[in-house]
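Here is an idea for our session: we take a single protein and study its fold together. To get us started, please write out a protein record for me. Start from the sequence, derive the backbone structure tokens from it, and show both lines together. Go ahead whenever you are ready, and we will take it from there:
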Amino acid sequence: MRTDPFSRHGGLTYAIVDLDSPGITIRPLRTIGGPSEFCEVRFDEVRVPLANVIGTVGEGWQVATTTLLFERSTITAPMVLGSLHALRRLSRLVADDPIATAEVAELTVRALAVRALLEQSVAEQEAGIEGAGPSALKLLATELNYEVRHLHARHDQSVSQPWFTSFGLRIGGGTSEIQQTIIAERVLGLPRHR
């Protein structure tokens, strides 16, 4: 929450909020695939006890970025493993189609590389090493997942729901464009884009 309107990142405070608190409105957002996997949460004059603050008042940006770092890592594991599973099923489905078989092979190589990056990222986090690895991992995993699910849906329309879901996964935890910006600035040292 914003606790200092004159400071950009220093003016944020991170807190745990009881969603049953007066002034909170939760509205499910339907996705292209039908189910409500996301919600709009509105805070109107919600009072939060000081005891619910995580970290220090005004230092919430650091807590938020650390939280997102771990979120980006944890959401990628099911995507990578799910992509590999879908590719195994898809390879049997397109066995007689040389073009589709080549696409599956290329995506499988990419999926195995992303799985190796996932394993490295987890080991680094366990060792307390911070960096932009989770952003790179999130970017690669969500784009891979999208392409795998799209190819699978093209060959078997009964599995179109995971493809629809893959659109939202490219947004949650920071869009692919945000991940590219983080990588550009923090890994490549490129100047900030304004």
Observations:
- Residues 98 and 158 are 22 Å apart (CA to CA).
- Residues 60-93 form the longest helix (34 residues).
- The chain has two domains: 14-54, 61-187.
